[in-house]
Amino acid sequence: MKKVRHILTFAYSYLQVILTGTVVFQTFLMYPNIFRDPPASLQLSMKFFSAVTPADFFPPFGSLVVATAIPAVVLAFRDRPAFHLLLGSVLLLLAGDGILSILYFWPLNEALFTEGLSRYNAETLKEFAVDFQHAHHLRLLTSLVSSVLAMLGLMRCRFK
């Protein structure tokens, strides 16, 4: 059982760091281009993402992270220092990358990238873009802290 706990804790910690890396990538490489000059830059982004979109990657990858996180936390229950760090990491993951994305970003993505000018005027899309970026900074922060907690949890685990 200890080996399974070790593997799951290691897997979750590193998958969480990879997830945070993708959020950092979005923040500094994608979003400056996507939100440079809405709505024109949004329309260009829709053309660019015509084959594969972030929505094709993040929900399945996020599910994989959660699928490793929950059993890692459950198996770390008796290892209190690690358990508290991993639990904090998972709660931030679920709140920042999960609930915030599903309840806020997914509908906003629909408005910005699917419906666009066919439903909203240019001024409204600009406001949506600003709101998106502000909320994204919260997602970035929760993801960064979640990764730090996951790695600290991994380092605190007793695998003997």
UniProtKB/TrEMBL annotation:
Keyword Membrane attributed:
yes
Per UniProt, the keywords (alphabetical) are:
Membrane, Transmembrane, Transmembrane helix
- Membrane-spanning intervals of the chain: 12-31, 57-77, 84-106, 137-155
According to UniProt, the name of this protein is DUF1772 domain-containing protein
UniProt organism field: Pedobacter yulinensis
